[in-house]
C-alpha cells in the first residue's frame, strides 16, 4: 500500500504542471503560481484521507484557483490591472524585420481572450496539446460530453476575435 | 473518439487549427509554462512534506467520541469535574449541618407571670412539637432573686463570687450605677458542695436552678 507521501508525489509529477499552467492562464505571475501549486499539494497531503483520490486533479485546480482569488483579494486591484495591461503589451511580438507575423496576431488575440475567459482559453490549449476529451473532462471536473461541448463553445467564442488574423488562412 | 476527432470539430479549419496551435505554443512560452521545472518543484515539495506530520486516517464518529472520552477522563476537564463534584458534596454537607433551626414557642403562665420558652431542633416538625410539649409539661422555673445591701459593694460582690465558685456554680455578672447583678446557675438540691453557699446566703437546701443576686449600696 502506497504511503500518502508517495501518492502525493506521484500526482505532483504527473499533474503539477497543469495546475501551474491553469494559474498562468488566470494571469498569475510565475512566482505566485509556483507558490500556490506547492501550497495546493501540501493541502492535498494534509487532507489525503478526506479526498477521493480519483478526483484529486479537479480538487487541485479548484483549490489553486481559490488560493489565487484569495491572493488577488489581498492585493490591490490597481496592481492587478497593471499586470493585465503589461501582459497584453508583451503579446505583441515582432520578427527580425519589424513585421508582425500572423501567428503573433493570433497570439495577441489569444492573450486578450485568455485574460477575458481563462478557463475557455485553457481548455482550447489542452485540446491543442492533444489531450483527450476524457483527460480534459477530468481536469475541469465535468463529464466527457460536457467537456466536449464546453470546448466547442470556447472555440466558437474565440473565433470572432481571431477573424482579422485568420482571414488570410483558409 | 480519438484526439484527432476531438480537435476536428468544424469550428476552425485544419490550417487555422495549426496556426492556433502554434500561437498557443508561443503564448505558453511567453507565460512561462515551460519554466516550471517539475523535478525541482517536486524536490521542494518533498522537503516541505518531510516537515509535516503524516496525516492520520479520519475516524468514524464513534471512534472520535471514544477518543474524546478517553482524553476527557485524563485531561483537565475530568479533574475539574471531579473537583466540582467534591466541592458540591462538601457544600451540601455544610448546608445539612447549617439547616435552619425550627423553633416552636410555647407560652406558659406561671403565677400570673408570662414566661416564654423556646425549644429548637434540627429534626422534623414532629420532633420540634414533641420537644415543645415536654417543656410545656414542666413548670416554668423562675430564678430566685435575692437582694443584698452592703456599704462596700465591691467587697460584697467578690465575697459572693468566691463562694459561688467554691460551690461549683457558674456565674454571670452585670453592673450599673446602682450596683451589680450576679446570676449563679447550677444549683442542685441537697448537694454537699453547695451547702456552705446556701447557708451563707440563707437559701433553702432544696433550691435548684438559678439565683439572681441584686447588690445595692446601703
Describe this protein with a few key phrases:
heterodimer; A: 2 domains; B: 218 residues; alpha+beta; 4-stranded mixed β-sheet; two-stranded antiparallel sheet; 8 helices
Q: Let me know the largest β-sheet of chain A.
A: none
Mean pLDDT of chain A: 81
Global mean pLDDT of chain B: 75
Classify the secondary structure makeup of chain B into a structural class: alpha+beta
Order of helices and strands of chain B: HHHHHEEHEHEEHE
Number of helices of chain B: 8
What is the H/E order of chain A? HHHHHHHH
What is the tally of beta strands of chain B? Answer: 6
Judging from the principal axes of the Cα atoms, what is the shape of chain A? globular
Derived from helix and strand composition plus strand pairing, the structural class of chain A reads: mainly alpha
Q: State the total count of DSSP E strands of chain A.
A: 0
Distance between the termini of chain A: 55 Å
Low-confidence stretches of chain B: 101-121, 135-139
How much of the sequence of chain A is in beta strands?
under 5%
- Our count of domains of chain A comes out at 2
Evaluate the radius of gyration of chain A. Answer: 18 Å
Task: Report the sheet-strand fraction of chain B.
Answer: 15-25%
**Fraction of residues in H or I helices of chain B:** 40-55%
Name the biggest interface: A-B, 56 and 41 residues
Short description:
By secondary structure, chain A is an all-alpha fold. Chain A has helices at 4-25, 30-46, 56-74, 77-89, 102-116, 118-128, 133-139, 144-166.
Description:
The complex is a heterodimer of chains A (170) and B (218). By secondary structure, chain A is mostly helical. Chain A has two domains: 1-75, no CATH class; 76-165, no CATH class. Chain A has eight helices and no strands. Chain A has helices at residues 4-25, 30-46, 56-74, 77-89, 102-116, 118-128, 133-139, 144-166. In chain A, helix 5 (102-116) crosses helix 6 (118-128). Chain B has 218 residues and is an alpha+beta fold. Among the domains of chain B are: 61-96; 102-137, no CATH class; 144-217, no CATH class. Chain B is built from eight helices and six strands; from the N terminus they run H-H-H-H-H-E-E-H-E-H-E-E-H-E. Chain B has helices at residues 3-7, 14-31, 38-50, 61-74, 76-97, 125-137, 153-166, 195-200; strands at residues 102-110, 113-121, 144-150, 170-175, 179-187, 209-217. In chain B, the strands form two sheets. In chain B, strands 3-6-5-4 form a four-stranded mixed sheet, with helices on one face. In chain B, strands 1-2 form a two-stranded antiparallel ribbon. The longest helix of chain B is centred in the middle third of the chain and has 22 residues, at 76-97. Classes of the chains: A mainly alpha (170), B alpha+beta (218). The interface between A and B is large, with 56 and 41 residues.
Amino acid at each position: 500500500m502506497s504511503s500518502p507521501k508517495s501518492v502525493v508525489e506521484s500526482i505532483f509529477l504527473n499533474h503539477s504542471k497543469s495546475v501551474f499552467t491553469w494559474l498562468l492562464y488566470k494571469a498569475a505571475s510565475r512566482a505566485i503560481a509556483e507558490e500556490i501549486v506547492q501550497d495546493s499539494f501540501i493541502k492535498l497531503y494534509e487532507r489525503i484521507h478526506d479526498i477521493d483520490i480519483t478526483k484529486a486533479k479537479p480538487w487541485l485546480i479548484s483549490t489553486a484557483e481559490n488560493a489565487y482569488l484569495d491572493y488577488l483579494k489581498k492585493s490591490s486591484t490597481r496592481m492587478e490591472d497593471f499586470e493585465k495591461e503589461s501582459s497584453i503589451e508583451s503579446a505583441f511580438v515582432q520578427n527580425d524585420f519589424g513585421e508582425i507575423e500572423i501567428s503573433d496576431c493570433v497570439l495577441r488575440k489569444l492573450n486578450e481572450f485568455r485574460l477575458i475567459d481563462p478557463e475557455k482559453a485553457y481548455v482550447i490549449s489542452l485540446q491543442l496539446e492533444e489531450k483527450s476529451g476524457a483527460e480534459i473532462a477530468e481536469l475541469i471536473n465535468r463529464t466527457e460530453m460536457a467537456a466536449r461541448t464546453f470546448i466547442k463553445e470556447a472555440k466558437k467564442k474565440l473565433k470572432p476575435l481571431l477573424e482579422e488574423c485568420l482571414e488570410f488562412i483558409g | 473518439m480519438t484526439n484527432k476527432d476531438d480537435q476536428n470539430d468544424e469550428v476552425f479549419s485544419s490550417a487555422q487549427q495549426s496556426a492556433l496551435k502554434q500561437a498557443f505554443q508561443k503564448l505558453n512560452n511567453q507565460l512561462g509554462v515551460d519554466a516550471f521545472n517539475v523535478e525541482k518543484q517536486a524536490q521542494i515539495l518533498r522537503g516541505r512534506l518531510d516537515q509535516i506530520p503524516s496525516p492520520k486516517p479520519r475516524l468514524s464518529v464513534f471512534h472520535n467520541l471514544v477518543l474524546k472520552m478517553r482524553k476527557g477522563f485524563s485531561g483537565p476537564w475530568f479533574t475539574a469535574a471531579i473537583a466540582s463534584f467534591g466541592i458540591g458534596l462538601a457544600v451540601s454537607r455544610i448546608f445539612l449541618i447549617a439547616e435552619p433551626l425550627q423553633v416552636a414557642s410555647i407560652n406558659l403562665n406561671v403565677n400570673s407571670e408570662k414566661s416564654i420558652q423556646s425549644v429548637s431542633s434540627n429534626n422534623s416538625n414532629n420532633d420540634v412539637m414533641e420537644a415543645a410539649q415536654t417543656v410545656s409539661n414542666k413548670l416554668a422555673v423562675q430564678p430566685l432573686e435575692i437582694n443584698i445591701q452592703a456599704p462596700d459593694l465591691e467587697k460584697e460582690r467578690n465575697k459572693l463570687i468566691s463562694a459561688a465558685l467554691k460551690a461549683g456554680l457558674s456565674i454571670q455578672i452585670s453592673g450599673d450605677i446602682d450596683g451589680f447583678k450576679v446570676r449563679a446557675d447550677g444549683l442542685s438540691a441537697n448537694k454537699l458542695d453547695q451547702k456552705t453557699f446556701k447557708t451563707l446566703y440563707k437559701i433553702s437546701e432544696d433550691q435548684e436552678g438559678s439565683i439572681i443576686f441584686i447588690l445595692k449600696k446601703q
